[in-house]
Amino acid sequence: MAANFWTSSHCKQLLDQEEVDVVPPLDKEKGITLEDFKHIKMHMANYIWKLAQHVKVRQRVVATAVTYMRRVYTRKSMTEYDPRLVAPTCLYLASKAEESTVQARLLVFYMKKLYTDEKYRNDRYEIKDILEMEMKILEALNYYLVVFHPYRALSQLLQDASLNDISMTQLTWGLLNDTYRMDLILVHAPHLIALACIYIASVLREKDTTAWFEELRVDMNVVKNISMEILDFYENHRMITDDRIIAALSKLNLKP
Amino acid sequence: MAVAGPGQLNVEEYPSWGSRSVDCFEKLEQIGEGTYGQVYMAREIRTGEIVALKKIRMDNEKEGFPITAIREIKILKKLHHENVIKLKEIVTSPGPETDEQGNQDGNKFKGGIYMVFEYMDHDLTGLADRPGLRFTVPQIKCYMKQLLTGLHYCHVNQVLHRDIKGSNLLIDNEGNLKLADFGLARSFSTDHTGNLTNRVITLWYRPPELLLGATKYGPAVDMWSVGCIFAELLNGKPILPGKNEPEQLNKIFELCGSPDELNWPGVSKMPWYNNFKPPRPMKRRIREVFRHFDRHALDLLDSMLTLNPEKRITAQDALVAEYFWNDPLPCDPKSLPKYESSHEFQTKKKRQQQRQNEETAKRQKLQHPQPHTRLPPIQHTGGQAHPSHWHGPNHPINNPQPPVSAGPSHHQYGRPRGPPGGPNRYPPSGNQSGGYNQNRGAQVGGYSGGPYPPQGRGPPYAGSGMPAPGQRGAASGYGVGPPNYSQSSQFGGSAGGRGPNPMGGNRNQQYGGWQQ
Lengths: 256, 516
Description:
heterodimer; A: 256 residues; mainly alpha; Cyclin A, domain 1; 2 domains; 15 helices; B: 516 residues; Phosphorylase Kinase, domain 1; Transferase(Phosphotransferase), domain 1; five-stranded antiparallel β-sheet; 10 strands
């Protein structure tokens, strides 16, 4: 994206982790725990990813869509904003905002196709539901549509550290993709997320980057904290089974 | 007013997210047609502040919220500059089902989404078309300087406006000029090497590269439009009023000469070059046609109306042109006279009314007088300005056809002209200003879907992925400059002498009254 991150709405909208980790009261009433809430968001990020592969949009669109979805749930409940509709609609909106428009018709087609593969069926959403939800999401986002992602920073930083070989690039890029299964993009500046991915990758691949990181003059505590979060996520995510997600979703008691 | 000073958001009363209802505003009157709907002047009930409300029309959208509106919102939310219109907020209305039936009450808004802008008293076309009004040279310089400053800011922030024309340049009674209507704008961001549509910019202001089918272009397209506006301000009327694309190109070639591999390397490979290339070479005649302009104005205009976009002057360079640094200097905006509100939409309406009256009065006559004429900038001390005073030198040169064809150009937006090349083929600019844009609803799917093939899809989450490093980068000169760049520094240097054009020469003494 053009323009400058530090003066952007994205920068001003960064939240504290405590603000992100709030289960909306309506969802709480239904017994949704913070863990459930996170699991559903993660699941929906995966779902956006799968849909995106079918409708063929570039990665940036996926990243923006997931960010929209996560922003929506800092302000709205899943009870009112059915994640199964919010997720594809975020992809729809992101495809416009990122200049890779996907037709609503196509999206609905793949929604239905995907649902038949899934264990919890919901194929009642139609084009008009997407369009209606689009307006609600725009409003929930307060029409702030520009999102900065760590991808560009990542390539620049890798180059600067002379780590831009295929192996490191692949590893860090994959790590970065996985960060969208968490709320990191709502909390941290993009370049710090990129640095955390480089940090993890350089430890894994036993590259000595200490000197390089020192020269950057960034707060290494923050980078290390983000890295820990990412590693924690990898630790735990095997425990997140489909059954747990279905259980969480069923608590929401959404209409069939 | 107690809550918010002029130009300030009254943040306190806003919800932290979501948007207010349009019911916070009282509609006063329609002041224009935007890209996707009407523009109203309205008063915020709470504060009494006057704003402009631009409706985002949704009724004909098969694809939900229009991508043009998304672009405009994205762009306006990131541009903050005194010469760019400010988007104050977005408000929604509950929709028709909650309205009382019929919507007969003229003060109610129908369901939809509105962008709330600061209110501006005039647009440049509306102002220029005021009967009897003439701009002074310092005034023209002042407007041009502001236009270029705003546009430079857009270009630094990697935004192409793509619809620069008089009715999109808003002017308030403090003399401030602001770029508005970013409905066709988009960012030429660096990670996007895809093609852009060439069906942008109102025909009369459209540069030759777009008319020749270019789909990769840059800020130079806006600079061509600026050149057309500049000449129009000095000339008193639009300089290139083509009726359709071939005629537009022809007019351009007649004025600027025909392009060839010498003056524009690569032009013969442009998609539509062979369809449109003139049968024989034509000479560049800008300096001849506009010989009555003063020397620095002519130098600047010449550099703006350069066929080759690579050679065309940039906004930044134009700002340091001699023109702005020689007497008479651009005036202070605040010193400009205040006028009663005038928008093209309104003056157009008034003129239509006037014309109707005249036509009924003398229907049998073939030629009826122009309802009004724009006046050239320089003060005539002797006598009333009459069309012949300033039509004279241009018609024979600029328009080989009888002036009749160019006649209606004074009501450029007043007279509906049918789309010449079949529906939707060429957006006619002459239509009610909305006319051109009305096509866009239908285009949305077409041009936003087609030209941007999905690029370099990243890997699935598993981490098996490879980025496509090639497609980013290419940061170009515009980089990621901080939006609040300093304006002052750029005016520091004096321009290196551009095209020394010795005084006198071919200047036409007979119209000396308005050279300066």
